[in-house]
Amino acid sequence: MSIGGTLAFMRGVPYLPGESSHAALGGVSLAILIVHLFSIPMDPLIWAVIFSALSSLLVAYAGRHGGAEALNAALAGAMALSLAVYATVRAIVPAELRALIDTYLVSDILFMTTLDIMQLSLIVLVGLLILVAFYHELMYICFDAEGAEAMGLNVKFFDYLLFLLIGVAGGIAAKTVGSLLVFALVIAPAATAREISTSINRFILLTFSLTVLLGFTGLFIALSIDWPPSGAIALLTSAVYIITVIIKNIFYR
User: Contact 66/10 with Cβ under 8 angstroms?
Assistant: First the structure.
């Protein structure tokens, strides 16, 4: 998740992880609807990740063919469509299935099953391997797409790959903390790291470190005072970002 937030900031689409996590709601809702209507076994997590990835690819396509304005319109449209699907399905399925859908809206990391952890670990591992394999290419197109194209790099392919990784991160975040809190857990650490980083490598490392540190600290606080873990983590990451910005503006203007 932390890498997804970092890539989104470097690519200039910091809100994409939040949009893709809301797209996960649409995927989960459709999976639950199929289970309800046809009794066909469906894995909501897989559908969540697929829809998150597809929505990100759609945004990438719009951005490449229509520029920043079309990209922003695609972001808004994809989120609106996903929420419409979520609201419609939620209104027609039984209460126990509505509760399952809502776990992707406001989730609790402590309720994750062993299967959930195994699936998420596999998805994260694949994403990390892709990132490591194409790290230099992805960094290149983030900062100098025209130069990369002039050097013969397949910018279109790597741009879609970049958006795909961000989308998958959003889908994972929807399962672990819920789509409403993705902005706090995925974007806030990256935003904090950007305020105090002086290089790309430091930005990536600091984002990862903050995500892990604040995540476990928030979880510890939640368990200590009996708070919802996702809420405690979101509150902590948001507070750290705000404090960082205030301190930077006071002492480093």
Answer: no
Residue 114 contacts residue 91 (beta carbons within 8 Å): no
* Phi, psi (deg, nearest 5) at residue 112: -70, 140
Total-model pTM: 0.86
Residue whose C-alpha is closest to residue 178's, from 230, 236, 229, 104: 104
3-state secondary structure 72-100: HHHHHHHHHHHHHHHHHHHHHCCHHHHHH
Domains of the chain: 2-180 (1.10.3470.10)
Three-class secondary structure of residue 22 per DSSP: helix
Q: How far apart are CA 228 and CA 178, in angstroms?
A: 12
Please write the tens of the pLDDT for every residue from 124-157. 888 889 888 998 888 888 888 788 888 888 988 9
d(CA 56, CA 225): 37
Q: How far apart are CA 140 and CA 22, in angstroms?
A: 29
- In tens, the pLDDT along 168-207 reads 888 888 888 788 778 777 888 888 998 888 888 888 889 8
Handedness of CA 235, 241, 246, 250 (dihedral sign): positive
Q: Could you give the angle at the alpha carbon of 18 between the alpha carbons of 60 and 117, nearest 5°?
A: 105
Give the C-alpha separation, 159 to 224, whole Å.
Answer: 43
Q: Which residue bears the tokens 């699907």?
A: 85
Distance CA(237)–CA(195), nearest Å, equals 14
